[in-house]
């Protein structure tokens, strides 16, 4: 049977106040005592009384998020992987989630209600768009928040964690150009999302530097599923001047693109090259494709864990974290890229 606070304090030979302060991260409790308390918590299965803890500290020990419910979003494996990282870090600190589903048109109301409820100590925001109005709305609330991604066309005076999507697809496109490719296709995420806009921007920049342009007939924006990857790739291959290379915004999209390429009887890495962005999804490793994929890599799970660390650190007044972080994606060359085929 799990012990209560009084029993835990007696077991450790400490006062209940000291144990409570150790669990709540008060700086006057030294590191050795805090570690003793945490070890005893693990061994005894102690769980704090949330109601009493909230009265004592004014904290809910919860992170709030609004999950937009729309076709394709509620079953997005990418969002699930991000939440897994967030959850792994939250569990370490005995933090909870308050997850509010919301129709896109009701998001602002849902965020305001969540912030005013007192049930969360901080919020996080995802699925960033160009000129995203939710940034100003969150800044108007008296609650900490961190954004996963960045808006476009807004001042950047808000806390965020993002990957450098522009540089990632610039580097990927430049590699293809160095291999002799000139007709390069793009299978991207939804057109209104900021990461999609930046990835296309990076591609366009690399092409322009080499006097090349992007044929808009070779661009598709869609939800990031394997079926959409398949449907996007098929018309590219049937084009009068098909591409010799393709960039995919996800390994999930690439899974469908590879299926279309194989059905067309083409050899990846020889007849057509392919580069995908790898979010490090555990069930879809690029090295396990029939032809290992060249990728730009940045872990969504790691991003989720980092945002949880920043939010929880801010709530508990622990650590000193940067307000804004821009992670560089790693370009990993494998067998799916090769020289452009000779005419």
From TrEMBL:
The keyword Protease does not apply. InterPro entries: HTH_LacI, LacI/GalR-like_sensor, Lambda_DNA-bd_dom_sf, Peripla_BP_I. Residues 3-57 form the HTH lacI-type domain. Keywords: DNA-binding, Transcription, Transcription regulation. Pfam families: LacI (PF00356), Peripla_BP_3 (PF13377). The keyword Transcription regulation applies. SMART domains: HTH_LACI. One of its GO terms (molecular function) is DNA-binding transcription factor activity. It comes from the Bacteria. PANTHER family: HTH-TYPE TRANSCRIPTIONAL REGULATOR GALS (PTHR30146:SF109), LACI-RELATED TRANSCRIPTIONAL REPRESSOR (PTHR30146). This is Substrate-binding domain-containing protein. It comes from Ensifer adhaerens.
